[in-house]
Every structure is written in structure tokens, then in C-alpha cells.
Amino acid sequence: MELLRPLPTPITPEAQPYWDGLKENKLMLPTCDDCGKAHFYPRIICPYCHSRNISWVQASGKGKLYSFEIAYRSLNRAFKVELPVVLAMVELEEGPRIMSNLINIEPDPAVIKCDMPVEVVFEKLTDDCTISLFQPAQ
């Protein structure tokens, strides 16, 4: 089976719990044990209070579309997904923003609206790699 998306490499030790969660269809976020704030991208120090006490918490998978772009051309030959594709910045209920794709919606700016509610869906690329995508909330 030909992959339509490149596999993420390398997966760093700081991000491994995120990718492990995706394999179980769970969206995991690093969360500071001291200030309680979730953050993304995964790192070993809280970007808010600089604590090193980080735990992984399952996110609700719900959020809102913060911004988007409709891509009509792929600038990377490794991406073979059908175009156009909606590139999305999603603001999760827990606070962090995450880049992804918005799927199951017409790629039309008259249809896609910032602040629209979205929810996570998972796409298994291989036995070892699952990614998170978002769709309009049901």
C-alpha cells in the first residue's frame, strides 16, 4: 500500500507519548503538574512556568477552528493526498493550538468558518503510525 502522507521522523523522546496515544485513538497533551496548563508541541519544560514536572493527559478531542488555508498545490512530493486539502490550526478546548488537516467538509471558504466547532478523528497510516485529523463536530 502506498502512503499518501510521509511518516513523521524522527519521533523524539519528548513526543513519544503523543504518538503512542494516537495509536490508541487518543489525543494526548503534555500538561504541567505545577501550573496545570496543557501545551503543544511536546517539550520537557512547561512554556508557562518553566517547570519540568510534565504529565500526559488525554484531551477531549474537541475544539474550534482557529485559522485555515485551502491548499490547491502540494509543495512536497511526499504528500499524495487528493487536492485541495484544508490546512487547519485548531484551538483545543484545553487551550493549545495544533496544526492538522480539516476533513469531511467541502474545501470552500464560504463553508469553512473560523470558530466552527471541530473534533478529532484518527487515520492509521501504518501499524506503527496514526495521525490526528479534524472534522466539523457532529
Automatic annotation (TrEMBL):
ChsH2 rubredoxin-like zinc ribbon domain segment(s): 19-54
Pfam families, per database record: OB_ChsH2_C (PF01796), zf-ChsH2 (PF12172)
Record InterPro entries: ChsH2_C (IPR002878), ChsH2_Znr (IPR022002), NA-bd_OB-fold (IPR012340), Thioester_dehydratase-like (IPR052513)
ChsH2 C-terminal OB-fold domain segment(s): 56-123
The protein, known as: DNA-binding protein
Species whose genome carries this gene: Entotheonella factor
Taxonomic lineage of the native organism: Bacteria, Pseudomonadati, Nitrospinota/Tectimicrobiota group, Candidatus Tectimicrobiota, Candidatus Entotheonellia
